[in-house]
């Protein structure tokens, strides 16, 4: 479903974690969609378009493939498909499931 994207669960912080780097051919916005797809169990094509939540071009411009030397401490959080998604400039994304 996710095309080789590794999504791990972190028990300590109660969230799903995705690591991505400059070797990944996908943009940050694609990683978000595929990761939420994996966590939710839904096909990526059935998810709401990411552009209805956040500007994917802006997300990609801010977070795509900086070298390690160029990365700052930026992060952004937003809700997508009921999950809280946080993207960090150091190449990590967390996905927190909705609370009941």
Describe what you observe in this structure.
- The protein is α+β, with helices and mostly antiparallel strands.
- Helices cover 21% and strands 26% of the residues.
- It is built from two helices and five strands; from the N terminus they run E-E-H-H-E-E-E.
- The protein has helices spanning 28-40, 56-63, and strands spanning 7-10, 15-19, 75-80, 83-88, 92-96.
- It has a five-stranded antiparallel sheet with strand order 1-2-5-4-3, with helices on one face.
- Strand 4 and strand 5 form a beta hairpin.
- The N and C termini lie far apart (26 Å).
SSE layout:
Elements: E1 7-10, E2 15-19, H1 28-40, H2 56-63, E3 75-80, E4 83-88, E5 92-96
Antiparallel strand pairs: 1-2, 2-5, 3-4, 4-5
Structural class from helices and strands? alpha+beta
Low-confidence runs of at least 5 consecutive residues: none
Q: If strands are numbered along the chain, what order do they take across the biggest sheet?
A: 1-2-5-4-3
Secondary-structure element string: EEHHEEE
Shape: globular
For the termini, the CA-CA separation is 26 Å
Strand content: 25-35%
Mean of the pLDDT scores? 88
- C-alpha Rg (nearest Å): 13 Å
Largest sheet, strands/sense/barrel: 5 strands, antiparallel
What is the overall number of helices? 2
Helix content: 10-25%
For the secondary structure, the number of strands is 5
